[in-house]
User: Fold Adenine deaminase from Sphingopyxis bauzanensis.
Amino acid sequence: MHDGFASADDRATFIAALPKAELHLHIEGSLEPELMFELAQRNNVAIPFANVEEVRAAYAFSNLQDFLDIYYQGMGVLHTEQDFFDLTTAYLARAHADAVRHVEIFFDPQGHTERGIAFATVVLGISRALDDALARYGITSKLIMCFLRHLSEAEADATLDEALPYLGRIDGVGLDSSEVGHPPSKFERVFARARSLDLKIVAHAGEEGPPAYVYEALDLLKVDRIDHGNRSLEDPALVARLAAAGMTLTVCPLSNLKLCVVDDMAAHPLKIMLSARLHATVNSDDPSYFGGYVNANYQAVADALDLSKAELLTLARNSFTGSFLDDAAKAKQLATIDAYTQR
Ligand code: HPA
Ligand SMILES: [Zn+2]
Assistant:
């Protein structure tokens, strides 16, 4: 019935402990309603919800912008270094429970500096939690600073200036927020500067935006990975190019469903991506808002698309090969997958 598995339960058990990396996770999107209330109280911030149930009920989105409006409002409860530490620590405990061995975390500094929170407060809180997770769980990490694409390139440039003292802890830069109307070309110069600083480069492209935005991410920003990339499938030449380049796509199934990028999980393109030899990975994006952490994402697509053991192993392997770990660390992680398969 399920290729490589005796039953659906057997597959769920396999997914639960499968060693994996998460490469597309906005730390602000892991803010659970319970912590939102706790921090609102701690920092004396008013929130327009009476209880956790009201917050969850507000998480019904018909597109990316619907979500972003509530996401930027939610992050308003984060004020102190301890808040960012607590947020990141809570995510890492969930990641550990999902057999995540390596994480590459996005953060949105402009969502905080715009509100008067110091850049240092954000980076120091997040990175202290990342250091703790290495000691506590052995989870390794990279940190990726995203520019908000609805803001100007000059503002992104100023944010890169603010990051300069912290480049020892920041591994890459990304591009997120409202995609349509804000093509990668708008940020060509600031990404060139980031490359000159030896930062890794990623960009959200082809989530709601057209294939042309994916081409721009490749040709103008010179990305090392594409975040989402779903709409690449509309352009066979682009698919062939991404496959030939071994370009990793960080795909987010529950996000795609909640933001109506797909109408139904059964219509999710993940299996088509794998058949086209695209280096797809599975990730949670904003797990608190989209209804599940990384294993829930694997499980949802596995059920809807009846993924085989071989496909699940490919996804987990892709998560390490597409990571920014060095070759020795990648080899070590891939060996843990081989050992897992042979149990
Ligand atoms: O899925 C996303 N897309 C664009 N911007 C975002 N910021 C947080 N999540 C997202
Ligand atoms: Zn994202």
